[in-house]
Amino acid sequence: MENSKRRFLKGTCALFAGATGASLLATVNASDSVKAESDIKYAMIHDEAKCIGCRACEVACRETNQVPEGVSRVRIEQTGPFGEYPNEYYHFSRVSCQHCEDAPCVNVCPTGAAFIDKETGIVSVNAWKCVGCQYCIAACPYKIRFINPVTHAADKCDFCRETNLAQGKQPACVEACPTKALVFGNLKDPTSELVQVLRANPTQRAKVALGTRPKLFRILAKSGEVIL
User: May I ask which residue range the UniProt record assigns to the signal sequence (predicted)?
Assistant: First the structure.
């Protein structure tokens, strides 16, 4: 009886020690991951003062990322005309993923299909893990996610992470813009064009009061109604 009790206590201690060791190891690993934080955080600026509403960005995105008809990763919304003839003008705004640092879509995903890429800060979707529950679509305050009719998975702009970026290029929309209304780059690089433009211009982000910390910035047109 005494031997049985000793074996039990010994086994319990071993389990406790193992659990404690695992906990300590997890703490060390977590600490290491913090230290190894990426030095890249991609963001984009849409300069509405330069945008002419040509929609070249929409076409380039569709072709590069094989986006099916009927859905879109990026679209340009036109409002207006404002003013009086012959001085009428329109307002063009970009509608696409905001690549939030605290992304509601990622927080609600039950399978981990929606995730933030640790290397780039890009909010992305693993189509193989997506079960089409549409929780992310309901959670997105910007209403830009959709179910891809071909893959049957949640889809949206990913800054061309798996296409152009993987080839060392700029996102397709940026390359296609004829007026250079789009600027893409690394928020953590003080020498990047993106950071320089942000420093030189007042910008706005959508629904910042929600605490999502979006990484899509807009430079408002100098004339015309402000559309939020």
Answer: 1-26
Strand partners, 182: 46
Closest CA to 166 of 65, 60, 66, 33: 65
Q: Where are the alpha helices (DSSP H) in 99-170?
A: 104-108, 135-139
pLDDT in tens, 113-141: 999 999 999 999 999 999 999 999 999 99
> Residue 146's beta-bridge partner residues?
155
Q: Is 30 exposed, middle or buried (0-12, 13-18, 19+ CB in 10 A)?
A: exposed
Tell me which residue has tokens 């340009």: 76
DSSP, collapsed to helix, strand or coil, labels residue 204 as strand
Q: pLDDT tens, 162-203?
A: 999 999 999 999 999 999 999 999 999 999 999 999 999 999
Nearest CA among 161, 110, 159 for reference residue 133: 110
